[in-house]
Amino acid sequence: MMVWLKRNLFRSPADGIVTLVAGSLAIYLIYQAAQFVFVTGRWEIIEVNLKLLLVGRFPEEQMWVLGASVLAIAFWAGLVARSLRRQAPAKQNALRMILELAGRFGLVFLLAVLLILLSGDSSNWLLAGGVVVAILLGRLVGSIRERVSLLRRLPRLLWVLPWTLLPLGFIYYTLSLSALEEWGGFLINFYIAILAIALCFPLGVLLALGRRSSFPIVRLITTTYIELIRGAPLFVLLLLAGVALEFFVPPDLAPDQIFRAVTVFTLFTAAYLAEIVRGGLQSIPKGQTEAGKALGLSTLKVTFLITLPQALRNVIPAQIGQFISLFKDTTLAGAALSVLEILNIGTAITKQDDFLGQGLIYESLAFVGFLFWVGSYVMSRESQRLEKRLGVGLR
């Protein structure tokens, strides 16, 4: 231990001074944060408004539909995680497996426990247990494909895609029961991010391919779109969608605010994602393309079977970074489009009669920031795990 400290922290007098100053500052900041969280922080504003922060004005009598949607998504996630595994999992020690799961999802588990304790509703423990059971059930159903010879012949995607209808069906049923204007809080941030990520990825790939196209008109159109969108601030585009759109479209035909937000986030992120994918395509040696053509493959097959998979694999860190940025930028929809997302609600609850003038904005912003940090951290850790599995950066 002493050897490690001397080698890494106190190698020279200058290193020792930097270590002492940085360590003292870190200890002070940790102490202040712990004192705020456990001693001086007044978290009753979060306890009282927890439902409003998480789901907005969603009707109380229809909350069971949201719970069913969460269970369906958990089941689908477990099924996908098991079905897309390329090889049978090696037998692991139970303790090692628990530690691995704790490292991956321990933060999400702690967040769930914190939210349940803040809600004060013991029935939420049943929902948390149901999520765990749904994930295990999904993994069990996903393993059926490996045990049945007829299903084993199906491509993994053809096995997974039909099961996608289950969570999508619950989400559609939720939309049919309640108006989209009643949604809000962290729920709307989550759905805007998920929809925008799902839509911007294929659009960004197509834009990247279009910018490298041999057809001048396609290359000109895609290049113009990318440069125009990347040169405009996201907040300005959201304002235009919220204000200027009705100058061109009749108000009764104009889409709602949430649809506008999803559209703007999709178009904006796709432009940035196109440049990321284009950089990945440029990193592929020309010999890969020439080898594919020497085998008699068409340009389309060379692109989608050889160069594009390698390019997407090489730029996983940049893609996930853009998705994390999109997830955090969903808070701009509240300021630009008056969407009742979590940051908008978090600042509004401090103006309630019971909390007005008490300076509880710090507690509110800390809670909102913690939710976004947990989501961003989990996305980052899972991307690192995917990079390790795919061998990104290794030859």
Written description of the protein model:
- The chain is an all-alpha fold.
- It folds into two domains: 59-178, no CATH class; 183-395, MetI-like fold, CATH 1.10.3720.
- It has 20 helices and no strands.
- It has helices at residues 2-8, 13-40, 44-48, 50-55, 63-83, 94-119, 123-147, 149-152, 156-160, 165-177, 185-211, 216-230, 234-248, 257-282, 286-294, 299-314, 316-329, 332-337, 342-348, 361-390.
- Helix 11 packs antiparallel against helix 19 (342-348) and helix 13 crosses helix 14 (257-282).
- The longest helix is centred in the last third of the chain and has 30 residues, at 361-390.
What's the short version?
The chain is an all-alpha fold and 395 residues long.
